[in-house]
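Troubleshooting: if your tokenizer reports a length mismatch, compare your output against this known-good record of 218 residues.
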Amino acid sequence: MTDTTLSRRAVLLATAGGAALMASPALAQRKADAPISVDELMKPGVLPDLTLGAADAPCTIVEYASMTCSHCGHFHTAVFDTLKTKYIDTGKVRFIMREFPLDTLAVAASMLTRCAGGEKTIPLIGVFFAKQDDWAFQRTNQIPELFKIAQQAGFTKDTFDKCLTDQALYDKIVAVRERASKDFGVDATPTFFINGKRLADAPTIEAFDKAISEVVKS
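Known-good structure output:
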């Protein structure tokens, strides 16, 4: 199977779901600053949450991100490691990652992270963000570039192709986005909720220091 064939099959999948992704009536129905139910925010969705940190941590951060979002990429390459060292690794924060794809290419990358499975998923997210310039912002050869990166997580051409043509997985990732928009007012990426309160400032380590200090004692 050639990289061209992989690209065509992925495009067919993206075309099939693209309209639902970009024009779903469920999107943008709740104001971003409207109060939300923390119980609803923490309720499991159609996909299991991707989590780091202690389940009993006093602070929970929920991130909604798109794999093709440059601001998300900056957070994960410039801020996340410090956040992890200061708060996640020390038991103060439980961090939850959820998908909010801005386009079908972002869905494809998220599908691959889910298909990687187990301990490979979150590291692969980090690699995709770190290498965004190689695949997310290119006009051509996006799928072959994704495959080059996915190979590092053990994908073969067959498993890569099977993942990107999994319509059920595609639909679930889109459903995560729709729920975030409809129920929690997510309208941009990255969006963070800290113990249910939306982070209003840019996601710098200083902003997280301030927000976390309000709920976690030193």
